[in-house]
Every structure is written in C-alpha cells, then in structure tokens.
Amino acid sequence: MKKKIRAIQYGIGPIGASIVKLLREKQSIEIIGAIDTDPAKVGRDLGEVVGASDAPWGVKVSADAAEVLGLAADVVMHTTSSSLPKVMDQLLACLEAESCVVSTCEELSYPYRTYPELSAKLDTAAKEWGVALVGTGVNPGFVMDKLAITLGAVSQRIDHAKALRIVDASKRRLPLQKKIGAGLSVEEFRARVKEGTIKHVGLPESVAMVADSLGLAVDEITETIEPKVATEKVVTEFLSVEPGQAAGVHQIARGLAGGKELIYMELQMYVGAKDPADTITLTGHPNISLTIPGGSHGDIATASVAVNSIPVILSSPAGLRTSRDLPIGFFAPTAKP
Amino acid sequence: MKKKIRAIQYGIGPIGASIVKLLREKQSIEIIGAIDTDPAKVGRDLGEVVGASDAPWGVKVSADAAEVLGLAADVVMHTTSSSLPKVMDQLLACLEAESCVVSTCEELSYPYRTYPELSAKLDTAAKEWGVALVGTGVNPGFVMDKLAITLGAVSQRIDHAKALRIVDASKRRLPLQKKIGAGLSVEEFRARVKEGTIKHVGLPESVAMVADSLGLAVDEITETIEPKVATEKVVTEFLSVEPGQAAGVHQIARGLAGGKELIYMELQMYVGAKDPADTITLTGHPNISLTIPGGSHGDIATASVAVNSIPVILSSPAGLRTSRDLPIGFFAPTAKP
C-alpha cells in the first residue's frame, strides 16, 4: 500500500480553509493536524471549522503548535501572516519537527534582499533537519514572477520585464475587500497606507525574483501604493463604494539599475475592476507577451499553487527554496480506490 | 576565475546554427567543438559556416564525432534529427563522453510511450555516466506542454486541456516552408504525408507529457495531418502558393481515455496564417486560459529554449529528464568583463 502524505494545516483563515478543503480532495494526502489560536476555532473539528460538507473529519483544531508539529508531518501548510519576521519562530518549529513547509507568507517567497539574515537562518535550519521550505501562492509565487520567468525560456535577450495584474475584488472575500480599502475615503485610505494596514504584500519580492532569474541587474526596488478611486457606485455582497471613495489598491513596484527601470510591476486590485487580466510583457529579442484573460482568481489560485507545490517540495533538496527553483505544476489527485 | 561551460554543437543545420550564435553571446560558455557530416561544412570554421559577423571563431567543424566528443564537453547541443531511433547512437556516444545533452530531437522530448525501451536505455546510460539529457525546444518542450503544465499550478481540478498553436510560416526558413508542404497540390501533400516527409513531429509527445503531468489518464493518442489549403495567393521570400494549393499543415492530436477526449492539441503552421497565437485552455476548477499573441517564434524560440536549458540540465540529477521536470527559465548572459 502506498504511504499517504501526512499534512498539518498551520493557520485556518480563509486561505488556510481553502487549502485544507483542497487537501481533503487529494486521495494521497492525510490531514493529521491543524493549528490555530482563534478561541472560536480551538477544540472544534477542522472540517466543521472550514464548513466542509463531509465534516466531521476527526481532526481537532489545536492551539498547541508544539504538540501538533510533534506528529512529524511530511508537510506543514503554513498560512498565518504575510510578515516573515512574525512567522520565523513558527517556520523554525516546523523545520525542527522535520517537516517540509509550504507557506503563503508573501515575504518568504523571495526573502533574500529584504531579509538576508533570516533567509540564511531558514536555509541552514532546513538543511540541518533535512527538509525544504518554500513561500508561494498566486502572487507572489506565480503570476507576476514564476510565469514571467517561465516565459523567459523563449527569449534570447531580455531588456525589460513588465507584469500587470488587474483583479476585480467584487467577488472576493470580505477581509480582502477591507484589506484593499474598498469604501474608504481617499484620506482614510492614505492614513491606512501610512499605518501599514492597507497593502498587498509581495511586489518587491516578485521584482527581486524576476531580476535575479532574468539577469536584470536591479540595484534598487521602489514601491508606491495609491488608492484606485471609484468613478461610479459599486455594490458588492459585503459593502458598497461611492464615486470618489477608494475602490481598492493601485500598487506599482519598479526594479531599477543605476536609476534606469528594468522591471515594472503594476497591481490594480479593486471592486468593480474592468477587464481583469494578468499580462506579462518581455522586451528584448524577441518581444513577447502573455495574457491570462480574466486573470487567475486569487483565492482559488493561491490554494491551488500551495497544494500543487507539495510534491515538488517533498522531492526538493533540503533548504530554503523559491518558486523560481521548483518545476511548479499540477498535483493530480490519485484515482479514488 | 570562474570556469566556463564547455559546449559542443552536434549538427549545424538552421537550428544548430542559431543555437551556436546564441551560445556565442553567453559569456559563460566556450564553444570547444562542432560536429557535422555535410562535406560543405566539414573542415571550415564554425563561425564562418553559421555566417557570424565575428568569424572566424577558431573552432573547426569536424565529421569525426568520436574525436570531438572526446574533448569531454560539459554539454553537447544536439540538433541532427527528429527521430529518436535515428539519433540513439549519437546520444549514447555523448553520454559515454560524460557530457550532458540538450537535444532538439522532438521524439526525445517525452519518449516514454512511443519508445519505452529506448527511454530506459538512455536513462540507464545517463545515470551510469553521471550526466543528464533532455529533449526540448519550443514545440515540443515549451508552448503546448511545459506552458500548459505550468498554468496547471493555479488549478484545483483539471478535466480537459487544449493547446492551439497557429504559426505563420511566411517568414520562416525555406526548409520549414518546404517541410510543411507549402505550394504543393493537395494530392502531392497527401502523398508526402503518406511517405512520412510532411509532418511536424512532437504533438503525441506533448499530449503524453501533459497527460502524465496533469493527471489525465490518457490511454490512447491519435493524430491527423491535413493540408491547410490556401484561399488566396501567398508569396513568401522563397516560394508562392496559389489558391487551392497546400499552404501548410493542420495537425490535430488527441489524448483519449476510454474513447473520451481529455486533451486536444491543434497545430496550424502555414504561410499566410492570420492571427498567429499560442493558446492554452484548461477546463476544470477554475476554467483558465492563456494566450501569447503572435505566438512564440519557432526558430528563435527553439534556440532560446535549448540554450536556456543548459544551466538546469547541468544542475539536474543524472538521467533522462524532460522539460516537465525542469524549472525552465532564462539563462542570463554574464556581464561582459
């Protein structure tokens, strides 16, 4: 009998919940534990917490990370925070438990420039314990970086790389609509940006990954966050936005070499977005572009990319990996017996 | 001083020529030998044979493969034939010389279904000699297979995969325009298909790679080749096609499971093609598609993919590899000193 992959879910927010539901569909995976500190979730059945139709699953959510990690899973699916410094102890605990880690922590996706010491520490710990970890998701981790790097395979010379992602947040979860400031006045929006609570995290990581992968000698990465101001009223399931209010974020990150732009990444994520799409444009020899009409759906795609990374991280050499290194693809469910 | 990658070019047709010209641009590569049996090339300087502006390069084309391979290159760029049985001895000789191989032999791109014994033989030999080989290019190797598999990363479930590649052969090299039957009568075209001289090789290999990578349990692969008939006169640099004559090929390959289609690949390669583009469509959860407007240019892209595969094949575990396994990307030129 083939041994199943034993998985632990660490963090059961919206992304964690959609990951465990997808894990549950893979016949080759057994969910052996779940960690969350939310008192509303602790002690309850994981299937019930995530609203699965086949609950209960017989796996209880626990706040005792050490105890759950002690089950020594093959892989921990980690979805607790965008901030690498905040999750360092969690990640190190996973590695010490000799489990591989797939994390959606955006800052882990390509941490070398912003956090060289933390990167080295994670790489060393992973190698010491003989396991591998990766930070991934749809963005960062796929659409603005991995896909651009993959498209680079048909290029003989690359002078400039551009990624444009336009996301219609209308049908996304409430926390996301709030996170992007939908419904705020422009002043409130700017205040929230200043205090750090409105931001899509990960553009500089994508710029750095693309720079290093396409040989673009970027020495400076800049980032701006502006409100995308609504020009007409937008009503979603959760909230409504008046003309003149912020409908979401408009972020631009640039990779510069001696002040010259080599990489341009633009993210528009707002409710009521027209023509959502993901577009990569490489200028060089030849010029080439690629479009995903409609764009890749953020929540579905992040869970997909994370779960689809399991086979590759399990077969990867020990250490800190990035989606740049991994032959990312689809993790087919094994046929039901 | 960093050691350069020592490369040998095996086969100096149009693709081989464009590969060596690209190799020449990479500061980290040193071309140490070149093999071809064409008397018009043997004994001449490689740079002159390929029409390089900086010729001579000081590397002579030789017909003595054993002698050149004896130089023990790090990698051999192999571009002699589409047929795996025809190139087996060449590939085995490269492996025995302890060189990694990047080959544009289409049937090597995913040889497991058509040639299981030859695949096993190559894998065993590569492991015995501690080197790796891969068959790759733009198609097969990238646009209809690797790109589809990569896009699969954002999918939670995949029910059907489709790849459509429309290539305008008008500006391609003469051998290609002839190979696709441009300018033949429909009868001549069909006769050439029957004798096996008109065919783009590689669709079944792409279907098999996609099937195995996306978990689509294909048990039968079919392929048809029809002429794309010109509806108006088309004049290229090399030839002209009258209405009613063949303008090129229209090939369709299908992957079936119990008679049901799970994979559909369509290649239209003809002179005067309207709206050339590469399009991948995955049906499942979610439905997602991707388009490269204009399509990836066959000759430029095949040389790119082959040369860009050098760093990954050199760092790959020994054995027979495919573009499915490799994190394909761009091979940046090192800065000029």
Task: Give a short synopsis of this structure.
Two copies of one chain form a homodimer. With 337 residues, chain A is an alpha/beta fold.
Characterise this structure.
2 copies of one chain form a homodimer. In chain A, the strands form 3 sheets. Chain A has a 7-stranded parallel beta sheet, with helices on both faces. The first copy, chain A, is 29% helix and 28% strand. The first copy, chain A, has 2 domains: 5-137 and 300-321, NAD(P)-binding Rossmann-like Domain (Rossmann fold, 3-Layer(aba) Sandwich), CATH 3.40.50; 146-295, no CATH class. Chain A is globular. By secondary structure, chain A is α/β, with parallel strands linked by helices. In chain A, β5 (100-103), α5 (116-129) and β6 form a beta-alpha-beta unit. At the A-B interface, α6, β14 and α10 of A face α6, β14 and α10 of B.
Blueprint (SSEs and pairs):
Two copies of one chain form a homodimer.
Chain A: E1 5-10, H1 14-25, E2 29-35, H2 46-49, E3 61-62, H3 65-69, E4 75-78, H4 84-96, E5 100-103, H5 116-129, E6 132-135, H6 146-151, E7 157-168, H7 174-179, H8 186-195, H9 203-214, E8 220-229, E9 234-235, E10 240-241, E11 246-257, E12 260-270, E13 277-285, E14 288-293, H10 298-308, H11 310-314, E15 319-321
Parallel strand pairs in A: 1-2, 1-4, 2-3, 4-5, 5-6, 6-15, 7-12
Antiparallel strand pairs in A: 7-13, 8-11, 9-10, 11-12, 13-14
Helix pairs in contact in A: 1-10, 4-5
